[in-house]
Amino acid sequence: MKIQNILFALGCGLVSQTLAVISWEEADKKASSFVSDLSEAEKIDIVTGYMNMQGTCVGNIKPNSRKNFKGLCLQDGPAGVRFNEGTSTTWQTGINSAATFNKDLLYKIGKDQGAEFYAKGINVALAPSMNILRAPASGRVWENFGEDPYLSGVCGTQITKGMQDSGVIVSAKHYVANDIEHNREASTSNMDEQTLMEIHVEPFYRTVTEGEAGSVMASYNAVNGVYVVQNKKVLTEILKEGMNFQGFIVSDWWAIHDLEGSFNAGVDMNMPGGKAWGPNYINDSFWGSNISNAIRSGKVSSARLDDAVKRIIRSMYKMNQMGNFPNVNLRAQSMHTETHRQAATESQILLKNDDNVLPLTKKYRKIAVIGKDADKAESCTDTACTNGNIIQGFGSGTTDFTGITDPYSSIKNRASKEGITVVGSISDSANEGANAARDADVAIVFVRATSGEEYIVVDNNKGDRNNLDLWHGGNDLVKSVAAVNKNTIVVIHAPATVNLPFINNVKAIIHAGMPGAESGNAIASVLFGDHNPSGHLPFTWAKREEYCCDVSYPGELPHGGDSKTTYDYKEGLFVGYRWFDKKGTKPIYPFGHGLSYTTFEYSNLSSSLVKSGTEVTGLKATFTVSNTGSVEGATVPMLFLGFPNVSEMGDYPVRNLKAFDKINLKAGESKTVTLEVDQHGLSYYNTNKKKFVVPTGGEYTVYVGKSAGDLPLKVTLKNTQGSNEGSSAGGNNNGDNNGNNNGNNNGSNNTGYDCCADSNARVQYTDESGNWSIENGNWCLICPEKPQCFSISLGYPCCQGNTVVYTDKDGKWGLENGQWCGIADIPSPSTGCPYQTKNGYPVCKTTTTVVYTDSDKWGVENGEWCIMCN
């Protein structure tokens, strides 16, 4: 079989431009100058939408010829440029982008998507979308990045950096807790403050503080009874003040209910301007000229207006949009097929592969491709149709289809290169599918489900899915085919989890998600082994009743104001895999699950805290990843962190994802991988202090593995937050503050600190460098005494290394610097105890219970610490 590198070359040059952005401080000065001579009416034009979505773009800000200001064009969305008439890429959805777990690729997706918006003169891209997948039936889960707030934050940050490096302002959305479609515009998401901050605000925190997002979109719903667009705590206190957000807040379309509440809460731009949809509301706005009257009556301040205008212009200056920005032309050609194909391919998730039925090779002479989902995707308004391959959900986040590849044609073309015959039943008829599969060596059944936005009803599904079953009789289709063909493979195109009543009756399952225009090429490439599957689930796959949360389908829908549909987030912090950990429930497939055509092993985990003075500022974990199979492939090592079990933490999740990377390895290759967690990742939200803090005391537990359900490596670290213990090892704040120790020279090592004079000194701190102690007020590394070797008495030095060149009756000899040297015979822990005491502690005599682990394992005997021999 043909296996190519799963990670396409990223170093061959970026297609899109990187524009010279400036700092927020520089942008602020320019914005202040621009705003200084604006009249009140001109300022109001900049904050109030123009043409009420009846203009060229979905959102428009009026131009100002006096100031040579072109105005603004705002356009959907997460899956590419909406209403582009087939001139731009039909990208994969957000859930597929997350499934790649590839940070470099995520940046490139943003970079190339941004280039397409830029080419069309679009100032603001209404993306990325970062709401949390609480319930898999929720309608817009396909636009977002899954159930985990850290993963969502990384995806949002990388895509934001890429898009803004192309000169386009992102509008990170939907801030915040807009997670269910039913009655979203008149609903309230109720939760405690810690849940709000750690789960739902968290993705926006990273996208704002690390990605420097130029805009954030305020959502339709209320939080704790107050509409987000009127919620000063959420918009001003948390976002603008708490995160030091420098950009502007734009309302979701027609989310504004009033002037005073929204304007004073912190909304900076009213989109699309009118009170409701339609041309009759073009000049009928809650804002507009009403702002002048409100300023005169004292209901709003002119300072608030100045702030809103300045934020908008500041973001434009930062992204270099106030100069020679392209004119609006939504039909301008700009395509990035190669990047999209990589993303579509890397997002294919191999859930099951019994008997290595995949990849398809010449051992199969006849393949049956079955199901209407294998046909070309059907194009319709906002993708509200399902008669073909599902490549996007439905709603405002969709694009005009162009360059579509369908699974059936792609598989047939690829099979012809191997001389394999392909037969098809491109319908959802169970009888026809069984007839096509009966004489085939292998049968591939394509099945589907979809979801979307509330304003569209598809097959009686109002945005949110009514259930998790496959659509169009998918379960019956698979059942019929599997009954006549023992080598049945199922490919699922769906936004998230679907029911799998056939799981034990088929050989392989691939979750293809909603992969965009390259759907056919991507699945063919993975099926035939041209690319080794490396996608991983960004959500937990389980039975509907086992999740923490579900979609509500209220019979009576309040129309807003004080009357709202209530969604209580009773699960708190326990979303997704956290809930399954808490309940001790094993899902069908855990978060992060994804198989490969090769195998990987993880080993040799070591970890340490990084400190500055008394503050814990980070964590590092180093381990080895090995490709133990016969083909090249990529794996995604994930670091989950268990927090200290101390009273201040309360009821806290067993573990949380805090770091990941994607590593490509050739067959037999091994790599040393280091994952880092920053201070924010080591912190929890303290509701008393109203901020994120590192807990005091206890131990952190570091888990490393391939998914939330496969974490073979584990180590615990003493939490030294608030103490001087170990501060020099990571914080670089001792000695002369340059990593140098001014004490006596007691030996050399690679840390920049001296060896302790006493090799049996008491251990004060342990990290990846070894054991540390303090002598004469200075930190020192406890360096083991180098064993004296037999060659000393013979007039030869001891070797520094362990390479044996020659062995005689005296011992083992090496050759270093042109001179013979002896190799010391160091006892191995595997063949006997290498010490009787260490660092002043005795060896455990009877206990085998490990109580604590650093560089060694420790137990307790007679109330005192002892070190384990093995």
UniProtKB/TrEMBL annotation:
Region (Disordered) location: 718-744
A cellular component annotation (GO) from this entry: extracellular region
Enzyme class: hydrolase
Catalysis: reaction(s): Hydrolysis of terminal, non-reducing beta-D-glucosyl residues with release of beta-D-glucose
Domain CBM10: 743-783, 788-824, 832-869
GO molecular function term, any single one: beta-glucosidase activity
Pathway assignment: Glycan metabolism; cellulose degradation
E.C. number: 3.2.1.21
UniProt keywords, alphabetically: Carbohydrate metabolism, Glycosidase, Hydrolase, Polysaccharide degradation, Repeat, Secreted, Signal
SMART domains: Fn3_like
Residue ranges with Low complexity bias: 734-744
Superkingdom of source: Eukaryota
Pfam families, A to Z: CBM_10, Fn3-like, Glyco_hydro_3, Glyco_hydro_3_C
Subcellular location: Secreted
Purpose of the protein: Beta-glucosidases are one of a number of cellulolytic enzymes involved in the degradation of cellulosic biomass. Catalyzes the last step releasing glucose from the inhibitory cellobiose.
Similarity remark: Belongs to the glycosyl hydrolase 3 family.
The protein's name in its UniProt record: Probable beta-glucosidase G
Protein's organism: Anaeromyces robustus
